[in-house]
Write a structure and sequence with these properties.
The complex is a heterodimer of chains A (about 375) and B (about 400). With about 375 residues, chain A is of the alpha+beta class. Helices cover about 25% and strands about 20% of the residues of chain A. In chain A, the strands form 3 sheets. Chain A has a 5-stranded antiparallel sheet. Chain A has a 4-stranded mixed sheet with strand order 7-8-11-12, covered by helices on one side. Chain B is of the alpha+beta class and about 400 residues long. The N and C termini of chain B lie far apart (about 80 Å). Classes of the chains: A alpha+beta (about 375), B alpha+beta (about 400). Bound molecules: protoporphyrin IX containing FE (HEM) (2 copies) and iron/sulfur cluster (4 copies). One iron/sulfur cluster (SF4) binds next to loops of chain A.
Chain lengths: ~375, ~400
């Protein structure tokens, strides 16, 4: 086995999906008539032919062991003719053609600790990243915070009682692998310290012009330090994005005391009613407090509850804030508005209030 | 390495949400990488800092991407994760599997790696989490034997992904899965052998609900759309009204095009004012459906903040018919790559490149005409470029 095979198989791409689709889907491909959500976590699709398909959606921690995958495969065999899929938010779905299998499948999933839900006006899974499990860039952990936040929000996963959809995403650094910049609530790991520079290593492991070019705020310039060809960072211009570290291992930023989490709100990707928009900064900094991150979970829960109580039907987090205005949002959320909230990057002026449309608190 | 106590991580086995710690523990007795992953993660939880060394360039022969190399910075304490590389395996379109396919993947990964996975990475790949350098080639060979190839990483075409589209959604305006598969196969070389200034992603959504978030997470976002009239089933509209749906409040008042009328009996839509937002269809799926003349809107340029700030994709082609084998889209993609590969700077995403050279110039270079659908509004500043010499020449 140690030797590479004489003839390598390359460039075959993924298997064709039609090999994996259940017969009911092959027969109704592109010919679905309508769907219903008979209960949280279950979608019923009805084809032009009258064929029916129940999809049962269950929570997943995304980081899963093959033992669990094999159990999914067993469940699929037992209840779903051997057919399952994963969703774009990393939930697992079983594709069931016999209605009588729906309830026992749900019972088995629930009993094993995999809640069924995530459909309709629910809080579905949190799109998240690698964190301390696998990435050198991480200013916080991913899986840990996600677990803590979803432990608080599971009742919203298993029900559909919210005014609209609410999407939560997490990224452990500004590279933002995932959907953080376009989610209703986003949790983002941040640094608050300029990189430490290992001057004796820069020349050896980094390409100095690339490092200089990597800085969004032009805070880096070439310099000779202690006889080494290296770089220096103008600290007043550095906002700790870590892009220099991405291209140069000799410039680490990670710091247990100053790293932490910021909270963003109001992004969306769908075009329904209002156009897609970015998430905006709500809380500049919360500490890393493993294993439970109480400050983060409390704030996320509070934001969900505020929105759920005040938003009109269909209003996404961003639509709601647009209607009530940012000053009232900050007031209701009990968040102190700070200078960090005001944009100071390129074209920041576009984000300033440029009218007298101001709502005052009235007695 | 003997197992170390993990009191902090143990906390995360409590609570109703399925626990990643439980997942790792399921394999702690079976693979040294998993017990040492728990150990090093507990250390990170205590110290509030990650323990992975920067970068790591490993891969399989013949490919320039698909594997993320990773080494821990405490190899003496945690030898099981001294090497802990990730393999990205190209998933089937829209993540449909048979139990047999899942078991095949599990068997291969049990043999060659930690047995931990991400289902799935945010770009869409099956993530095989954690193996040693010497495991890469045999694992790759066995995957290929079973019909699976690696996905993308680095400055290449990343793994395209799509919503479940026609497989299970009545709103799909084109075959997202067929399109995704065709693009992946057609551009295998660009996917496996990085040759771009930076990464390039394609995502395919069947309608403007955009269930794969293509407008935010793909350089090329292909979003299904229709250009004729929304199909109305009057009888079903009546059923919704009878069942208690407040059509005036829930549908009419929420229509951003202000183009729906409901007189208590009949629902009419002035389709030339419809913005194709999907709201009315989302609310009344049995009564309303996208039109019959279907295709897609192509949008270009989305990316995360680094470096010049986050971007959403913007309209490049307002409407295009989606017929296999999608030759006109392939040509357009190749034209975009040609211009961007020629003039793009190192680590400059196509969205940033367009901002630098100007959308007008970019359109000219790829051979598209400007269209008012491409802008939210025309420019507000008068700093307008003309190249009169060129204009005069072309007048002669
Ligand atoms: C009620 C109408 C809708 C239906 C029938 C519908 C259909 C679907 C389907 C079939 C999926 C699974 C797709 C996949 O994983 O490939 C999905 C997931 C998703 N949809 Fe929609 N969609 C609807 C409306 C929307 C709207 C209005 C939004 C955004 C506001 C949206 C955003 C999403 C997201 C983010 C997911 C991932 C959810 C998860 O995996 O748990 N959808 N939707
Ligand atoms: C060594 C450090 C890194 C690790 C371990 C890492 C890990 C990952 C993984 C596992 C994925 C999912 C991949 C897939 O599904 O195929 C991903 C996606 C992504 N990565 Fe990274 N990444 C790293 C560095 C970066 C850097 C430097 C950037 C940006 C400059 C970046 C930006 C992204 C983005 C934007 C996505 C998600 C795109 C989408 O939603 O489709 N990552 N990353
Ligand atoms: S978001 Fe940053 S820290 Fe997290 S996986 Fe991506 S690059 Fe790594
Ligand atoms: S952390 Fe970011 S802002 Fe600071 S020097 Fe590095 S690249 Fe520049
Ligand atoms: S994007 Fe549209 S077609 Fe695709 S799954 Fe979502 S609602 Fe259906
Ligand atoms: S799709 Fe949107 S804009 Fe068009 S009629 Fe329906 S609600 Fe109005």
């Amino acid at each position: 086995m140690a030797e590479a095979p004489a003839k390598r198989i390359t460039d075959i791409g993924p298997p064709h999906h039609k090999k994996f689709l259940p017969p009911v889907i092959l027969n109704n491909y592109g010919k679905w008539k309508y769907h219903e959500i008979p209960r949280p976590g279950v979608l019923l699709h009805v084809g032009e032919t009258g064929d029916k398909l129940w999809s049962v959606r269950a929570a997943s921690p995304r980081l899963i062991a093959i033992d669990t995958l094999r159990w999914y495969a067993d469940l699929a065999d037992k209840y779903a003719g051997g057919h399952l899929r994963f969703t774009s938010r990393n939930n697992v779905e079983f594709l069931v053609t016999e209605e009588k299998n729906v309830d026992p499948l749900i019972a088995e999933l629930t009993a094993a600790g995999y809640p069924v839900g995530g459909t309709g006006n629910a809080i579905s899974n949190i799109v998240h990243t690698q964190g301390w499990v696998h990435c050198h860039s991480a200013a916080t952990d991913a899986s840990g915070i996600v677990k803590c936040v979803m432990d608080e929000l599971t009742p919203y996963f298993t029900s559909m009682k919210l005014p609209g959809k609410l999407r939560i995403a997490l990224a452990c650094c500004l590279n933002m692998c995932g959907a953080v910049h376009c989610s209703d609530i986003a949790i983002l790991g941040i640094h608050r310290h300029a990189p430490a520079i290992k001057h004796d290593q820069v020349k050896k492991v980094c390409e100095i012009p690339s490092v200089v070019a990597a800085c969004p705020t032009a805070a880096i310039r070439p310099a000779t330090v202690e006889g080494n060809a290296s770089v220096e960072v103008i600290e007043e211009n550095c906002m700790y994005c870590a892009n220099c570290y991405t291209v140069c291992p000799a410039m680490p930023l990670n710091d247990p005391d100053t790293d932490g989490v910021s909270i963003w709100v109001g992004g969306k990707v769908s075009n329904a009613r209002t156009e897609p928009r970015f998430s905006k900064l709500a809380i500049p900094f919360l500490p890393n407090n493993p294993p439970r991150w109480p400050e983060v979970t409390e704030v996320v829960k509070k934001l969900v509850e505020l929105w759920a109580a005040d938003a009109r039907k269909y209003e996404r987090m961003g639509d709601w804030i647009e209607r009530i205005g940012w000053p009232r949002f900050f007031k209701l959320a009990g968040i102190e508005f700070q200078k960090q909230h005001i944009d100071d990057f390129k074209h920041a002026g576009l984000t300033f209030k440029r009218s007298t449309h101001i709502r005052f608190d009235k007695a | 390495m003997a197992k170390v106590p993990t009191p902090k991580l143990d906390e995360l086995e409590k609570g109703p949400w399925p626990s990643f710690v439980t997942e790792i523990k399921k394999r702690a007795d079976k693979h040294a990488a998993c017990s040492d992953l728990l150990g090093i993660l507990e250390r990170s939880y205590n110290e509030k800092i990650g323990h992975w060394k920067h970068g790591g360039i490993v891969g399989v022969f013949g490919y320039g991407g698909g594997v993320i190399g990773r080494y821990c910075d405490l190899p003496e304490d945690f030898p099981g994760v001294a090497h802990f590389h990730t393999m990205r395996v190209n998933m089937p379109a829209a993540w449909f599997y048979t139990s047999e396919a899942i078991r095949t993947l599990c068997d291969i990964w049990e043999k060659h790696g930690s047995g931990l996975t991400n289902m799935h990475g945010s770009t869409g790949d099956i993530i095989f989490l954690g193996c040693r350098t010497e495991d890469l080639e045999p694992c790759f060979a066995e995957l290929a034997e079973a019909g699976f190839d690696l996905g993308g990483s680095g400055s290449d075409l990343r793994t395209p992904s799509c919503c479940c589209g026609m497989a299970r959604c009545e709103w799909a305006c084109y075959d997202t899965m067929g399109f995704c598969y065709e693009m992946t196969q057609h551009f295998q070389d660009e996917l496996h052998r990085p040759a771009f200034p930076y990464k390039f992603k394609i995502k395919a959504a069947g309608c403007p609900n955009d269930c794969v978030a293509s407008i935010a997470r793909a350089d090329l976002s292909v979003i299904g759309n229709w250009r004729d009239n929304i199909q109305i089933d009057a009888a079903e509209v009546t059923n919704y009204a009878k069942a208690g749906l407040d059509i005036a409040a829930d549908v009419v008042n929420n229509c951003p095009g202000q183009c729906i009328r409901w007189d208590g009996k009949t629902l009419t839509i002035k389709d030339e004012d419809c913005k194709h937002c999907m709201h009315c269809i989302n609310v009344m799926p049995k009564a309303l459906r996208p039109g019959k003349e279907r295709g897609a809107t192509l949008l270009l340029g989305s990316k995360a903040p680094i470096m010049e700030g986050a971007l959403l994709s913007s309209v490049l082609v307002p409407f295009i018919e989606m017929e296999e084998p999608y030759d006109d889209i392939k040509e357009l993609i190749e034209a975009i790559w040609e211009v961007w590969c020629e003039d793009g700077k190192n680590r400059e995403r196509v969205g940033e490149f367009i901002q630098r050279v100007g959308m007008g110039n970019f359109l000219e270079a790829i051979g598209l005409e400007p269209d008012p659908n491409m802008v939210a509004h025309p420019r507000e500043n008068p700093y307008v470029f003309y190249n009169l010499n060129e204009e005069e020449e072309s007048d002669e």
